[in-house]
Protein 1
Amino acid sequence: MGIRRPNARVDLELANASPLRRDGIALAIFLALTLVMTNPLILRIANAVEDKQDALLNTWIIGWVGHALVTAPLNLFNANIFYPYPNALAFSESLLPQGLFALPFNLAFNNTILGYNLVLLASFFLAAYAMYLFIFDLTRSRGAAVVAGTIFAFNPYNLGNLAQVQLLSLGWLPLALLYLRKLLTDDGGRRSRTNFFSPRTIRNVFLFALFFSLQALSSFYFAFLAGFAVALYVIWWLITKRSEPRSPALIRVLISFVIVAIIVVPFFIPYLQVQRDLGFQRKIEESEPFSAMLKLYTEVSPQNVLYGNLLAPRPPINVGGYPLDNLFPGVVAVVLALVGVAATKNRERWFYFFLLALAFLLSLGPRLFLTPTLGTEITLPYRWLYDAAPLLRAFRAPVRFDALVMFALAALAGLGIHRLPSSLFRLPSSVALVLIALEYLALPAANITSVPTGDAIPPYVRWLAQQPPGTILELPMIASEPGAPLDLTTQYLSTYHWHPTPDGYSGFVPPLRGEIAYEMQSIPSERAISLLQALGVQYLIVHGDQPGAANDLQLAQQFGGDYVYRVAPRAQDASALTVRLYLPQPAAPSQSYFAYVIVQNRDARSFAIKPTDALHVDARWSDGTTQRVEATLPLVTTSVSVVPVRLTAPPRAGTDRLDLRVTGSATGEWNLSGDVAAQEGEPAHQIVLPARVALSAPLKSSYAPGDAVDINLTWQPLNKIDAYYSASVRVVDAQGNKIAQQDREPAGRTFLWTPEVAVPDQFALMLPRDLKPGECSIQVLMYQADQGIAALLLDGQNVPRETITLGTFSVK
């Protein structure tokens, strides 16, 4: 197991002290490093964070966890954002241990910023001390343990992620591996039958399960990384202990994981439910920008004192609102790790070496990038792991495997510094500690972004805190200004009143939250107010300009530029809805097929629903095939909405009857039917748009050959159109032959059209000079050329038409 004796001045001081004082010196070192390496955060610990994006998101998460555990623990995951979606906490990390740690401070000081910053500082301290205990158990050298703890806790990767406290939470892993080692090596596996239930064994089983559970609950990412490291350690142990009894040890590990499952699984079920219900997952392509390019391992932040002028990227490259991670591990740490591999006799060094190499490869992502802009076609192991492990499909950032790289590097460095006194290179651990801290030191390390706390909390927030629980919405909504930095101040301020809101920001955003934000841009329109009423919003808070007068909005309070409106409730009337079914022809056997439900609202008021009010569609074909799918009705229907229903066509060619039973909690039940012709070959490529077109000025009754025909028309979008389409306006003779045509995007562009707002447009077509006398008509078609899709408009009776005839004239 290598030499186990103090090796330098720090070791000598610690060796002569009592056990409590020995750890006391290490704890004092880590506390000092925590305060210095995160400078100047300690000076603004109660009213500043790294930024107003992830730092405030994590402040909100930590605050919510404590609030829910005190007030309604069974509703822990039903957080107050993204109302009425359930399990909103599972849209990101749950940070349960961090929330428990911050809870007494939040309760005592009513300052969630203070609680968050204490969690952040404690994360560094915990990581350093946990690694210290782990390496001391491995080497019996406290100097080596202090060095390893410093590398693990204060490396550039950690210091570059001060806004993301979940990435600083790997401190439980060293403790979990410490007691895993004790579990596997207890009594050497030889007398384990007689001591199977000894107090020491029970303690090791419980502590491994506890620390692994704390790690898993601290971060969903790090739960996977911790499980990855533990699994590799068990495999390594099985390979290296082939000559010793292994069954008793494995039984102890199995019992530990049963305890882990009992603790952790209830907190992971909401994540599985969210992934099942909303389909949250990442495509492999999304991970490439968040992978560790090779060059990143040579870079530090511009604020790094020692290397900033040499190794900092210039200019910094931002991805997801943040600079790319700086992964330079430091010269001293690498040299010590090489000594640990080459000079020590401890067999565990090969496990840490293998873990470091594998974690490094996985951090590079699905394919090798030399620099952020210079990629290769070399496929890397992460691509295979992504395909094999479905959990990885919820992850976006392979670079986070660098946390395991630094863990393994710190362990090897601890072995290396422990070995140095008996080698040719004498480097006291105190000197190594100073050099490592200097390599990692940044001035400043933390950004100081002020946020309101205490007496600076806005008056409207304090007023809301005094109101009974009820749904609120603040405008402008989060991320509603394109190009503006993401600001989660309103979400953070909700920690002082905890009213539910349809707004919010998290690691994943539910699919219809954007539609709510889009509709709210038209406040105080009747559509927007109807949606507020459907959402059950009681108070609308408007920051900035006061909106115009509107029915069902009553000013309740004004606090400077913050206006609080009381929203009058109104029940939605589904009986005013009528539906028809449009079935494109033909379908292709066994291929994807879209049916369209056209929903018309006959009421003078818009019909609105909640984003969770899905339509459940039971489809039955005449050949006996049945399908059950879900469809989405737009949140607001003023006059007409179009609902696409994705089905699979029958397996055989021919004409089949399709019966649809459509049910929804807000809409009731609709029964629709029609015939679908299926044939081999290309199916119909059609999409139905919720839009009409009409002439805004009548055509002349007759034109002469060579005349210009000015066509003044009006596009009438009836709901949001989520793509860009082109229009073709044509002059057609009595036999259907095209005489003249003009193709272009309509005025205002379809994706930017506002529902129920008419868009005037003008086309000018020149009649041929040799045109013969006769009757001609004006026709309009829409299409998406790059997709080969015909876009059908609605006629006056809301029937989809591939061609809309606007009028006729004579050629004389």
Protein 2
Amino acid sequence: MSDSFSLFLFRLVLICAPVHIFSQNCTLSISGRVLDEHDQQPLALTEVYIRELNRGAVADSSGAYSIGRLCPGIYTVIASHIGCEPVVQKIDLRQDEDHFNFYPEHHTELLSEANIVQAKKRTTAYAEVKLSPEQIESARGNALDDLIENVSGVNTLKNGNAILKPVIHGLYGNRIVTLNQGVRQEDQQWGLEHGLNVDPFTAEQVSVIKGASAVRYGSGAVGGVLKLEAAELPYNSKKFSGKAYLIGNTNGRGGLAALHLEQGLNTKWAYRIQLTGQLMGDRKAPDYMLTNTGNREWNGAVTIGYTHNNWETQAYYSTFNTELGILRSAHIGNITDFEQAIERGEPFYQEAFDYRIQNPRQRLTHQLGKLKTTYEPNAHKKIELIYGIQHNQRLEYDIRRDSKDQRPANDLDLFTQTLELSYQWNPTPQHLSEWGLAGLLQVNSNNAGTGIRPLLPNYNRYEGGAFITHRYILSSWLWEAGLRYDRQYTLVQKFNLQNQLVRPEFSFNSLAASLGATYSFNTNWQLSSSLGYAYRPPHVNELMSEGLHHGAATIETGDSTLQPERSLNWSNTLSINYPGQWNLEITAYVNPFLNFIYLNPQQEVRSTIRGTFPVYLYSQDNAILSGVDLSGGLSVSPKLDYTLTGSYMRGFNNSDGDDLILMPAPQLAHSLSYHFKDLKTFKNNFLSISQKLVARQQHFPEEADLVPPPEGYNLIGISIGSELVSTHTKSSWAFTFSIENLFNTSYRDYLNRFRYYADQTGTNIQLKLKYEF
């Protein structure tokens, strides 16, 4: 009878339990971050799971995780990271918990996330550097070069002061992929005078992958990848928060304002809004005005996200709009004036300071739309679909004979659609695989009415590719491998010199592969080596350019017989890191090329009805690029820090035994920062002094350029800052006062294409105010 009664109770529990369970509010969530116990650095790929439910999540690159769809109750939550003892915590969950953090302790075999610049523990064998939040904040309001040149081996190719392109190990343009919010940026990046049409204020995470090992990102990533990403949306925070910036500069007599707002509406919805505006007038070199070098810019971005159960969808839209002047003295009327401009050592055309932007000038608009959907069925699998659509409009205005003629000399529209589907599989903390498919459809159009033969023809470009990567951790070893195949087809439409419509077609197959390994000798020493093979088809501008490149003030001619580039990149990195004491990272690389394509300057200038300009031809030879990067830091005392970056590289043309042109000169940058004692309300008080040393480029093709490289230079900078923190409102005011080129040094940079005509800018005093709430 007792058995019958027990069976009855058991059946009653089975019947009643579901009613009790499903009547609960199972919409709660826990989230937080997983950080190193010692240096507070994020631990990516940490598996956080709930023992009672046997499900969880994997921490992302910032160490953040989130587990939703939870009922009220007591749970055992475990954070497990390779090389660490699992951390176990109990939680009595009655409401959303968004600061449930874990702090694992590292052991000898640790391979943790390299999430700050310079030498930190690495979870990749490739030469990837992620800038710290402090470095990103310090560069707010400055040009892109002030941000990315914090990374050794990274430079910028410039045309004046407002047109900048990243240079990684001597490679730029179509050899560098920029990922803007996870979408491959397409904005006429082939032009040496075409800067990146992105707003740095939209990026909360910035990283650089150096070399050809990043096969995941396609055939264009021969030189590396620049990644600009936003932070995670604050789903679990209902607090309305934001940041406001107001920045003023003396050189250019202008400034910038920016506003960043975000909020989690509930556990499912969140949004972010970003607005930026800038107004700058003519810049000034130490001894004269740089006429017509002002710029205006206004940008906006909005993100809306929705998450439910294992799904997340984000919609993103941004608009970038700028108008910028081109140095007036770079456009010259005849050969005599051109020769005199080089000989005289300063611009022939100088006027008083002005905010007006006159011809020659550029007006640029870039719109980006993104729809991303992510599905994570469990802690070990992730499927992601990203669709991107971009519209880039470029208007280039020249100096015409009729000063009232305001027609653009170039009027280009570039429409691009991209689609990427990827699948990540993380069966154990030791294994991480990713498969993916990617496609691109691009249409470039010259709008009629310019009255000038276009430099670049109309074309349609189609690309499709597939990739696979795998990462494996075994004791003190980390292994990585990747493989990618792409097919590209381009249809060009143009009128030849006989005014006949021709339709040349170009079709290429690309194969890229990489293999890398990292060995940890102990918790402080690591050695990484990676080998990458890359294949890059020539771009339409290299094949079909024909005419004046307005912004660069050069005449350029393509070669339709160019063959695809093939390169082999071998990179080796030694990382040493003693937290709180010192760190050092040294990278040596060699990068041989077959069919290396470059813009070859000719020993001539050509006079046209639009002026007199130097001539460049696209050429192709075998080449080899090699060099060394250095970065490090030293804690001299608890309040005094020293940092150092340096690089040396050389590009050599194997075909003719000469050097390559436009290779970065050797340089060294270091800084000394003193952190004052915090006061009652004033925190993060500091004083920093920096020095940048750039040597004269000694290795260049002797008779291939119009003038030899300029002399080296030495720049000193200083900055001081503090933060006023309100303990009642939990808001803060931060200010930074800085002086660039403290001694008003006159200099010219080898990688600035306007060095023929003028010096770089002189002293600039900047005041930056930031309000965070």
